[in-house]
Amino acid sequence: MIATILIAITLSQAAPDPLEGLSPAEGKRLFNGQCAVCHGIGGGGSTGPNLQRATLPRAATNADLVHVITEGIPNTQMPGAWQMTEHEARLVATYVRSLGKIDQVVIPGDPKNGEVVYAKSGCAGCHIISGAGRGFGPELTGIGLRRGAAHLRESIVDPAAEVAAEFMTVRLVPADGRPIKAIRVNEDSFTIQIKDSAGQFRSYDRTQLKSVEHLPKESLMPAYTHMKPSDLDDLVAYLASLR
Amino acid sequence: MKHFAVLLFAILSAHAQVSFDRIVDGELEKGNWLTYSGNLSAHRHSPLTEITPANVRSLKPVWIYQPTIASRFETSPVVVDGVMFITEPPTVVTALDPKTGRKLWRYERQLPADLQTIGFGRVNRGVAVLDDMVYVSTLDGHLVALDAKSGAVRWDVFVVDYKLGYCLTAAPLAIKGAILTGTAGGEAGIRGFVDAYDSKTGKKLWRFYTIPGPGEVGNETWGKDEKGRDTWSTGGGSTWVTGSYDPQTNLIYWGVGNPGPDWNGDWRQGDNLYTCSLVALDAASGKLRWHFQFTPHDTHDWDATEIPVLADMTIRGKPRKVVLMANRNAFYYVLDRETGEFLSGTPYAKQTWAKGLDDKGRPQVIPGTEPSVDGTLVWPSLQGATNWFSPSYDAAAKMFFVAVREMGSYFYKGEAEYKPGTFFAGGGERELKPEEIYGVIRALDASTGKQKWEFRLQSPPWGGVLSTAGGLVFGGTNEGNFFALDSKTGAPLWNFQTGGDISANPVSFLVDGKQRIAIAAHGALIVFGL
C-alpha cells in the first residue's frame, strides 16, 4: 500500500518541464528558418498568429506547446513539424515561450470606436464578423487570433501587399473580349471558377477564354489610404480585439 | 464421362493459369493487363487502339468502385481473364468483375494496432499474379499468396519487422517461379533489401541488401558518425517501387532509395552505396551484376526508386539494350542494361544542384546546394522532378512520357539521432508557394531525352501516365482531372473531373472486346469506355 502511494507520488512529480534547461537562442534560428514564413520573423504574426503573447490559447502547458509544434493543429493551416527531432521541437518551444515574456506591443486606438469606423466605412459590404455582413472577402470573425496588429494595419492601407491564395485576383478575357477581374475561387488544368464583383460564381472552360492572368500582387479590396490616422488606429484595435 | 470431366478440368485450369510464359508474352494478350506496369519491361503502354484522338471526346465512366475505407487509393489494377485485382488501403485485396465493378471476393488483412508508417501514407499500390495465385505485400511486413479464385490465403510469410520502420507498399514482381518484393522505410534508418520467395511455397530464395555489410564491396563508402559509430547499418536504401525484369539476360532491375539520415550528410561521409542507385541483380541468385549511382552522397532525399524502363534502341549508330530512368534528381538517364554503362543523362526539369554530368554520369555538384540550418533553396524539391508514379514508353514511337513536378524547396539540415522504429531524417523542407510551382507532362525522345512536347498542369502531380497504341497519353492531376493528350503533339483532347486527387497510375484492358481505361482517384476506382 505504501509502495503504491509512493509510486503515485513519484509519478505525479515525474512530469518534468520539457523545456527545462533549454535556452531560446538555438530555437530562434530554427524558428526563423522554418516557422517565420507564417508566424513572422520574431513571431509577430503574418499569415499565422502573433506569438508574442504571454498565453497561447492552444498550448496551456509547455508539453502542449511541444505537441502543437510536432503534430500541428487539425483543421487549420498549422502543419506538424515532422522534420524536427523532439529535441528541436523543444528548442523552438523554448523560443516561442520567450516571446511571451517580451514587452507586449501596445496597440493604440479605441476598439469601441473602431467598431463604429468598421460600420461607417462599409467593411461589412465584403466581410462577415460573427455572422453579419457579406461574404465576398475573407471572414474576419476571430481575426485578432490569426493576425497581428501590424499585419491588420497593412491589410487596410495596402491590401495588395499580401493576398491569401484563396482570394487571389485573376483577370480573364472571355470570347467577347470584355475582361473580368475577379477572385479566383478554384482552378484546375482545364477549368477555372471565379467570384465576380457582384458575388456571382462563374465557371469557364479554359478553351472558352482568350487569356487567364493571375495577379497575386493585386487585391480587389480598395486601399484605405485616406482614413484618418486615429480612425485607422481604432479600426486596427477593433479587429485585433476580435478573438 | 470421368475422362471427359478430367479433360474439362484440365482445360479450365489451363485457362485460369497465368503462366510465366504468358507474362513474358504479355504484349500479345491485348485484353489483359498482367503486371503492375503492364509488362516486365515496365512500359505502361497499352497496345489497344479502339480509343483514339478522333473519338476520345466520347469517353465516359462505365462504372465506379468505392473502397470501404475512403482514404488515398494508389492501386494500379491487374486484369486477367475477366477478373480485375486491386488493392485498397491499408492492405486489402479485392477481385472485381471488370464488366460491372461488382465485387467477386475480398481479402482484408488485420493489421497490428501498433503499426506505424514513417514518412509515407498507409497505402498499397497493387498485386502480382502468377499461375493460380495473387500476391500482395503487406504494411506489416509480410508477403501473402492468395488463391485467385477465392481470395483464400495459400501462404503467408514474414519478410521484415514493421516495428523497426519497415513497411511493404509496392506491388510484388512475379518472375519464373519467384515473387520479388522490396521495402519502404527510408526515413527510419532501415537497411533496405530486395527479396525473392518461391512462388509455390513462400520459401525465401535470396535477399540482396542494398547497403553492403562489413567486408563487402561498397561498405567502405560509409564513414563513421561523429561519435565513431558505423553508419551503414542505418543507411536506408529502401526499395519501395516495383522493379522490372529482362528474361533474356535474367536480370532484375530495381531502384534504391535515399541514404539515412536524409538531409544531414555529416553523419555519413562517402558515396553511401548503393543508395540512390539502380541495381541489376541476377534473378537466380540475387547477386549484384552491376550498379549505377545517380546521386552519390545524396542529401536531398532523391530516391532512385523511379520505374526502370527496359527498351531496345539504336544509340549513336549502335543497337543497344538499354534501361531508361527519369530520376527524381531531374536528370533523364540512358544506361546499357547489360553492363550498366552510362550512355547519356539530360535534365528534363528545372534543377539547380549540378553543373552537369561527367563522362561516367557522375554529377558535378554545385557547392553550397546541400541543406543548411537556415534553409537552402534547391530545385527539384525533396519529392523530386518525378516520383513513384509511373512513366510510359511507346516503343513504336521511341517516346518516353513522364509526369514532372516543377518545384523547388528550402532544404533544412537538422539533428539526427537513430532510435529503432522512429523518424531518422536529420532535417526537412519548406515548399515554395503554390503560385511558384507547377506540374507538366513531358514527352521525351527516349534515346536522347530531348523534349518533344509538354502539357502544363495546375500543380506538381502525383499521378502517373499511360500511353496507348491508339495515339493517346492518359494522366491525372491533384485537382481531380483525368485527361487524355494526343501522344504526338501533347494537345489536350479530353478531361473528366473525378472529384478526388489522383495519386495512381492508369491501366487499359478489354471487356467484351471494348477498350477500357481505369484510374484510382482518391477514394474511387473509375473505369471509362466509349
State the major sheet of chain A. Answer: 5 strands, antiparallel
For the terminal residues of chain B, how far apart are their CA atoms? Answer: 45 Å
What is the helix tally of chain B? Answer: 2
Strand order of the largest sheet of chain B: 1-32-33-34-35
Indicate the overall shape of chain A: globular
Shape verdict of chain B: globular
Strand content of chain A: 5-15%
Helix content of chain A: 25-40%
Give structural attributes.
heterodimer, A: 243 residues, alpha+beta, five-stranded antiparallel β-sheet, two-stranded antiparallel ribbon, 9 helices, 35% helix, disordered N terminus, B: 530 residues, mainly beta, five-stranded mixed β-sheet, four-stranded antiparallel β-sheet, 38 strands, 4% helix, globular
What does it look like?
The complex is a heterodimer of chains A (243) and B (530). Chain A has 243 residues and is an alpha+beta fold. Chain A has helices spanning 2-13, 24-34, 36-39, 62-71, 86-99, 111-120, 143-146, 149-157, 229-240; strands at 128-129, 132-133, 169-174, 180-187, 191-195, 201-205, 209-215. Chain A has nine helices and seven strands. In chain A, the strands form two sheets. Chain A has a five-stranded antiparallel beta sheet with strand order 6-5-4-3-7, with no helix packed on it. A two-stranded antiparallel ribbon of chain A has the order 1-2. In chain A, β5 and β6 (201-205) form a beta hairpin. In chain A, α2 (24-34) crosses α5 (86-99), α4 (62-71) crosses α5 and α6 (111-120) packs across α9. Chain B has a five-stranded mixed beta sheet with strand order 1-32-33-34-35, with no helix packed on it. In chain B, strands 2-38-37-36 form a four-stranded antiparallel beta sheet, with no helix packed on it. In chain B, strands 3-4-5-6 form a four-stranded antiparallel beta sheet, with no helix packed on it. Chain B has helices spanning 2-16, 20-24, and strands spanning 45-46, 60-65, 78-80, 83-88, 92-96, 103-108, 128-130, 133-137, 142-147, 153-158, 173-175, 178-182, 193-198, 204-209, 244-246, 251-255, 277-282, 288-293, 309-315, 318-326, 331-336, 342-347, 354-357, 363-365, 376-378, 392-394, 399-406, 409-413, 427-431, 438-445, 451-457, 466-468, 472-476, 481-486, 492-497, 507-511, 514-521, 524-529. Chain B has two helices and 38 strands. Chain B is globular. Classes of the chains: A alpha+beta (243), B mainly beta (530). Chains A and B meet through α2 of A and β29 and β35 of B.
